[in-house]
Amino acid sequence: MLESLFRPKSAAVIGASSKELSIGNRVIKNLIDFGFKGEIYPINPKADEIRGIKAYKSIMDCPDGIDVVHMVIPAKFVPQAMDDCGKKGVKNVIINSGGFSEIGPEGDALEKEFLATAQKYGIRVMGPNCQGIINTDADVRSYTNFTFTMPDPGFISIVALSGGVAEVIHQAFSQMGVGTRIYASNGNACDVTIPEIIRYLGDDDGTRVIVTYVEGLRDATTFQEVAKKVAAKKPILAMKAGRTMEGAKAAASHTGGLAKEDIATDLIFKRAGILSFRDEGELIQAAVAFASQPIPKGNRVGIITNTGGPAVIATDVMVDAGLTLPPLSDRTREVLTETLFPEASVNNPIDVLATGPAAHYRACLDAMMADDNFDSVYVNFVTPFFVDNESIAREIVEVSNQQIKPIVCNLMTDRRQWTEVVRILQDGGVPCFALPGEAARALTAMVRYNEIRNRQVGGVQAFNDVDKAAAAKIMEAAKTAGKASLSAEEVYSILEAYKIPVANWRMATSADEAEKAAEDIGYPVVIKADSESIVHKSDMGGVAVDLADGAAVIAAVEKMQKSFSAGDLRFFIQKFLPGGLELIMGAKAEEGLGHAVMFGLGGIYVEIMKDVVFNLTPVSSGEAAEMLASIKGAALLEGVRGQKGVDQAKLVEIIQRLSQLLTDLPAIQEMDLNPLMAFEDQVFVVDARISL
Length: 692
What we know:
Blueprint: H1 3-6, E1 10-14, H2 23-34, E2 39-43, E3 49-50, E4 53-54, E5 68-71, H3 78-88, E6 92-95, H4 105-121, E7 124-126, E8 132-135, E9 142-145, E10 153-160, H5 163-175, E11 180-185, H6 194-203, E12 209-214, H7 220-231, E13 236-240, H8 254-258, H9 263-272, E14 275-276, H10 280-292, E15 301-305, H11 308-320, H12 330-339, E16 345-346, E17 350-351, H13 358-370, E18 376-382, H14 389-401, E19 407-412, H15 419-427, E20 432-433, H16 436-454, H17 468-480, H18 488-497, E21 505-508, H19 511-521, E22 525-530, E23 543-547, H20 550-563, E24 570-575, E25 581-590, E26 594-601, H21 605-609, E27 612-616, H22 621-630, H23 634-638, H24 648-664, E28 670-678, E29 683-685, E30 688-691
Parallel strand pairs: 1-2, 1-5, 5-6, 6-7, 10-11, 10-12, 12-13, 13-14, 15-17, 15-18, 18-19, 19-20
Antiparallel strand pairs: 3-4, 8-9, 8-11, 16-17, 21-24, 22-23, 22-24, 25-26, 25-28, 26-27, 28-29, 28-30
Helix pairs in contact: 3-4, 6-7, 7-9, 10-16, 11-16, 12-13, 13-14, 14-15, 17-18, 19-20, 22-24
């Protein structure tokens, strides 16, 4: 559907100019200089020709069948120009001009006006407030864009809302000597969307890896659906703006305070199989590796080096990221022992020494390609003056071109002196990085992609033993009453309706009732003050724990009655369960996406360590298990220093039940189960709250 936009056979520029220092001139120049294969039609009522090309007074004067019109005119003239394009049968319009929805209501009205016209005629619109498109395909050579970085052909495609960030990334590839395939800056994205472009790039055989930068997801569901399909075929590498911004600081729940404002975007990326980056440098380096190398089949890395220290740095980076360095097979050791210098280290890493010639590198590379112990190869290549470095580079390229296993290279050299070595490796498609950590992180990204693409998330379990109607009735009554949060009784009743295990509990309105409830439950007990006006009960003296008898219960209730003047004050009596591991689960509503479900270490530790992970509903069994394994304190779940582990199967089940509860009750805004007390054979919720 976007074929004529990305592969136009003709392009017109409304607002073309003879002035050298103008965008209208630059677009024409870019089309000419880049070698555009189609016809070019400058539109300017006052010019006969622009850059030696015949100019036209109006789009109406041009030949029929124009694929793309690039508008470089003031915003107020765009609606009329769009109508002219429609009458002329133009297929696509790229609007470089700003002054639309990004500036407020007046601009938004203009944008809606020209978009309605475009839709009337079936015109697809790129932008407005955008740079445009570059396509390096030799059969197209389209540069309907006003930027200045003329890329070489390559296999990396870039799509972004922000032209500034996209151009930074684009220039970085150019400076590294790495070509690109398609560059698309979409500005306000009033019509053609980022998901549409990603879908197109997914079907483009010339694109091996997609790099995207987003500043928000207008239609997150569509983005996720499209990206998931594309990411299964080729890697998508993404960054999002505003990652350091936190959500509301006054959030009533722990979940709301721990969830960043953009947590949903991170989770969408994860679910779609997109590799997410916080650093543009790491994203760029990873893209370079993906562009030329096959995807590793596992996390086992073989290292070849001619100097020790950088290999150690790379090893640390990769091991920290979960990659492994297995030993050489017996056969590989035997071959290399016979081939390399006696002083060489025939281990992993293999140290061929600074004096190692090209033949030694080739022997190591061939051996690792044949050794089933390895999925990828990291080469640390220093260029000493006493070896034939060009020959070494050629051997690396030759093996890389076999596409058996991925190769990344830390090229340690003076690029001003060893220009030919650099050229050989770059032209040969070997991803080369100046620092060992950069190369290691690029390879790590490739391993991550393989893991994400092949992860088994399992199915979403539907529990048939829940009482959805009872829970919905409680929610509806609370909504009718205008409540901002549910009472403890309402919260625990909902949890019980979904078979989420809770510690035995009762409600009381007086000291006498509390004492009787405690006797029914069995000592020791916990008492919690319950009122809509009391949020963090423990901070306000609203919690008494480990009460061993009736006298202690009565004393605790009477103290709370004196401390709190709330008219709706009641008392929540619950079995005290010491000795378990304190965990937290929670949820935060994400508009249009359901809820972000949280799991981590709970109790007081959640505020100190913030060791939590999130996932979007509905949460599958595999995703729930991943959440348990992803926290930093995962070892505590297994048991450490003589302590017993906890019932992880039950935790996985509770996460899934919570996911179903949240799906069934979308009115829940925030929810905390904190703490859950986890034991070897059982788990109980001992405190919970729900906000509407």
